Amino acid sequence: MADKVSYKELGLVNTKEMFTKAMKGGYAVPAYNFNNMEQLQAILTGCAESSSPVILQVSSGARKYANQTLLRYMAMGGVQMVRAMGSNIPIALHLDHGDSFELAKSCIDTGFSSVMIDKSGVPFDENVKVTKQVVEYAREHDVSVEAELGVLAGIEDDVKHEASHYTRPEEVEEFVKRTGVDSLAISIGTSHGAYKFKVKPGEQPPPLRFDILEEVEKRIPGFPIVLHGSSSVMPEFVDMINKFGGQLKDTAGVSEDQLRRAARSAVCKVNIDSDGRLAVTAVIRKCFGEDPKNFDPRGYLGPAREALKKVIIHKNEKVLGSAGKG
Ligand code: G3H
Ligand code: 13P
Ligand code: ZN
């Protein structure tokens, strides 16, 4: 196992103060997933340039892909890169969709400042039990904990949920009290991946269930809420992917208007992964199509990184309202 290290030594922060400020300021902190250097550079430079707080998210799949020790040092190097740019934005390192106490503990022990324990797929009492166990360990290390009630459709790590069920507002108060968790992910109609809604071309996806969100807010006022599955599946990148040989049909994401509305509410953290994947894939396909002689990875990874940075700045400035809050 990697050596024990506290996130505080890495220049990271937990999400407590970020969420207090987001709640007061009526915006949401972006949580962007990364698996490699170019994504990390794009996220951090985009957030530094737009002066936004940021949560760097790592899934267990990302940990396996990039190596857990390397990822941790990449995050540490990322913080130093941002400081060298003269930016002081708060940066958290968060485990996305942790599925066990052991995984959450391993992340806490190796420099994460925040962890998600996702037991949304098991019965309520079991979810409470494991979440509470993670909270107790996290408290000793001043690490934030996110949990989930309700199930999103789509792909969560290796688990594929065919069906979703919305969060039941009548359960949230007891869950938060019994677990002592710091934030709660809820299911109000978002889902993971590029295929969020079954819509025909030209049709609008159904709106999110803001009535459920409002009911949750009434029962746990001022408590930080998290929205997963919040990519907009940006049409410009879907079109670019298809133009250059890809096959993405009838995709739709969460509209920016819906996200703006959510960001003004108790939603303090918005998770975005697929939009980053789509931007990178689109630009790489375009580069391959337009410059078939190139074989230097910098020739396509560089433009892909630049496009992702622009996506990050757009979301911070125009959707989540986090720009200028770092
Ligand atoms: O919600 C899941 C995230 O998009 C992470 O996906 O497990 O493929 O890294 P991943
Ligand atoms: P998207 O697939 O909509 O980007 O959601 C990402 C997410 O929820 C990561 O936890
Ligand atoms: Zn998620």
Structural summary, described in words:
The protein is of the alpha/beta class and 326 residues long. It contains 12 helices and 10 strands. The protein has helices spanning 16-25, 37-49, 60-66, 68-84, 101-109, 124-140, 169-179, 210-219, 235-243, 256-263, 274-290, 298-320; strands at 29-33, 54-59, 91-98, 114-117, 144-149, 154-156, 159-161, 183-186, 225-227, 267-272. Helix 8 links the parallel strand 8 and strand 9 (225-227). Helix 2 crosses helix 12 and helix 7 crosses helix 8. It binds glyceraldehyde-3-phosphate, 1,3-dihydroxyacetonephosphate and zinc ion.
Strand and helix map with partners:
Elements lengths: L15 H10 L3 E5 L3 H13 L4 E6 H7 L1 H17 L6 E8 L2 H9 L4 E4 L6 H17 L3 E6 L4 E3 L2 E3 L7 H11 L3 E4 L23 H10 L5 E3 L7 H9 L12 H8 L3 E6 L1 H17 L7 H23 L6
Parallel strand pairs: 1-2, 1-10, 2-3, 3-4, 4-5, 5-8, 8-9, 9-10
Antiparallel strand pairs: 6-7
The protein binds glyceraldehyde-3-phosphate, 1,3-dihydroxyacetonephosphate and zinc ion.
1,3-dihydroxyacetonephosphate (13P) binds next to strand 3, strand 10 and helix 11.
